[in-house]
Amino acid sequence: RHFEALDLDVRALQLMNGFPKSWFIPRIVKSMLKIRSFMKKNTNDDILSMPLMTDPRKIFAMKISADLAQRAQIVHNMPVMMLNLCKMVCRTIKYGICQDSSSAFVTYGFLMGA
């Protein structure tokens, strides 16, 4: 059932233009470079003082993405998990912080440090 739920999450994000249909690896690398550049330019205080995310569609996309991240980890789909985490962090950088931003930053940091 996790595979089915993961597929539904991916399709929901695709309908919201929040997830590509293919070419995961190049997109992951591009997103990681963008995140790395952002992290080098900003301190923890800068990140914590970012504006709040206010767009309900973006907040909803973050909630779906948070669920997707857990399911992708359960079924060991690392490309989907990594791309999703990168998309979550990039969405936070672009649109502001929301409740699910912290888990994206923590998981991304954990994976980069591993």
Compact description:
With 114 residues, the chain is an all-alpha fold.
Architecture overview:
By secondary structure, the protein is an all-alpha fold. It has a domain at 62-114. Helices cover 76% and strands 0% of the residues. It is built from 6 helices and no strands. The chain has helices at 2-15, 24-41, 44-48, 56-74, 78-95, 101-113. The radius of gyration is 13 Å and the shape is globular. The N and C termini lie far apart (29 Å). 30% of the residues are buried. The mean pLDDT is 89.
According to DSSP, the number of beta strands is: 0
Low-confidence stretches: none
Largest sheet: none
Structural class given helices, strands, pairing? mainly alpha
SSE pattern, N- to C-terminal: HHHHHH
Mean pLDDT: 89
Portion of residues in beta strands equals under 5%
Shape: globular
> Helix fraction?
over 70%
* N/C terminus separation: 29 Å
Count of individual helical segments: 6
Radius of gyration: 13 Å
InterPro entries: Hybrid_Histidine_Kinase (IPR053159)
